[in-house]
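#data-curation
PF: Archiving a pair of folding outputs for the training set. Convention for this channel: one message per protein, sequence first, structure tokens after, nothing in between. First:
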Amino acid sequence: MPSPRRLSHAVPFTGRVFHIDRDRVRLPNGRTATLDIVRHRGSVVLIPQPSPDEVILIRQYRYAIRRWIWELPAGTLDKGEGARAAARRECEEEIGLTPGRLRKVGEFYPTPGFCDEVMLFYVCSALTPPTRKVALDPDEQIEPRSITLRRARALIARGDIVDMKTVIGLGLLR
């Protein structure tokens, strides 16, 4: 099947983490539509494991949903930054530990209907204190906590973990 053809293009918003493209397109069925697409550099989702039976989650206030939630640490790739470097940096920033080993375990699009963000999932192990001073982003207030995988899965089953990337990330562990 042919792809839609772009007829016009505008960028109505540019922010710190993403921008929005507004495209007028001709669809394969001949109709035209205006599509707003969130363009994002991509992100890494960390599954930090101090041991094979434990995972480190963070508790963080998410303004968009106006509540505190438990989730896997994650962050946006900086401009020009590779995913492995971002995973190492985010691990140090969000949980205060440096991964000795990184293993990519998945790659998913969380909202492909309107956003091109790809989330790259990494298991982080052989965790040690960082060799340099690291700081949180100005908009972050994070509380890391190590829990057993069994407890994390029970929190999902009870509906206490509501973050989709965390549910997916924990499901990737075998």
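PF: Second:
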Amino acid sequence: MHELQEHLHREWQIPILAQRLVLKDEVLAHEGAVGRVVRLPAGGDVELVCLRNQLSAEVQETLDLRLLRAVAAGDYSQMASALTDGAGSGQDSRMPSVLAMALALQDREAEEMLRAAGIEADLPDKLGTSQTFKSLRRALTARSLPGAVWCLANGADVNIWLRRGEGVQDTSGGTPLHAMCAQHMQLGASAVVQLLCRLRADVNAGDSEGDSPLAHARYFGAKEIEEVLRQYGGKLRGPYYQFSFRR
């Protein structure tokens, strides 16, 4: 059944999770789940109808986040799997563009995979004159992750110093990694952290008080970001960590 669904995806560009296969009014597969087993006569021809269902907003969001994280990690196998399932066909405007992510990483293979799947991205000049697409500081101040990723794709400094009110919280200054810990509830935040790390952001930079991004992740309860920072060598450092440890 899965081979048939993959064939339909390749030939008709219908995502697997959106396929609904019908044989004699019996649904064989719906949203990737195999239904009742139907035994077919050997050598017999079978006529199937494939209907395309609209994925729910929740399923689409999950798929798009999966694709974004795969692009951020450079995991081509996961990219292909997410695209086959239907990722990228209805990306939430609050989420960073997967194509902008690939451009920021200068990942030609990921870019080609995304474009081959029909995924494009409106360039910032088509998105209006919003200042969030022109300055990483402004993007993080406005809590715009799409704007931040486009700025990174255009060479923004991944270690730019941010003052209070410019995306960082509960400190008078820090880096984009500190800001992302404070904004961890936004869609795609952990993927943006991985992007920053791969672009050589200082994972152990101190904020104004000397606390590392990992200390901020622990402080804000940003578990996914904490895992990414540890993956890239992040350490718990600074007075907040020391105080918490003693307490």
